[in-house]
Amino acid sequence: MSQPDTPGGPEGPPPTEEELRAAYEAELKQLRVEDVVVQTIVSLLNLGGRKAGLAPGTEDERDLDQVALAVEGVRRLLPFVEEVLGPDAAQLKDALAQLQMAYVRLGGTGPEGVVEEPAAPAAPAAPPPPRIWTPGS
Q: With the CA atoms of 82, 86, 88 and 92 taken in that order, what torsion angle do they form, in degrees rounded to the nearest 10?
């Protein structure tokens, strides 16, 4: 004889909004910023590879500006978590190097979205001192 179906299946009723919020809070208590930074780096590497057309079937998604942005993002974030990762950081560095090489092979020259600081205007050149002494100089 089968049991009647209960809302939420055999485990019981679905969790309430309060239970879901409590579970979410418990996860946040355990989560560290370093975990999020590492996950972001991995996501950037994966997305960068896809935007480089490296994964089979993604050739039509190629976008070198996006690849450059992914590379720059990883380059800037990686130093924050290298110490925490220890020897595992080498895997992320290798993936970054591969993405950088793919970018160059595909014709990339540098990140297009990077705005460089304009050079300070040169100070006007002072006139050369006179060769002979004149009164008041």
A: 10
For residue 99, what are its two tokens?
A: 């993405």
Q: Is residue 103 helix, strand or coil?
A: helix
pTM of the predicted model as reported, rounded to 2 decimal places: 0.66
* Cα 26 to Cα 15, 20, 31, 38, distances in angstroms: 15, 10, 9, 20
- Residue type at position 5: D
Q: Is there a contact between 106 and 65 (Cβ–Cβ < 8 Å)? A: no
The pLDDT assigned to 36 comes to: 95
Residue ranges of the domains in the chain?
A: 37-107
What is d(CA 105, CA 53) in angstroms, rounded to the nearest whole number?
Answer: 12
Task: Take residue 84 and report the two structure tokens written for it.
Answer: 């925490």
Q: Which of 44, 41, 47, 30 is nearest to 89 (CA)?
A: 41
**Cα 54 from chain centroid (whole Å):** 18
How do residues 100-121 score in pLDDT, each as one tens digit?
999 999 987 654 444 334 445 5
The residue behind tokens 């485990």 is: 11
pLDDT at 124: 58
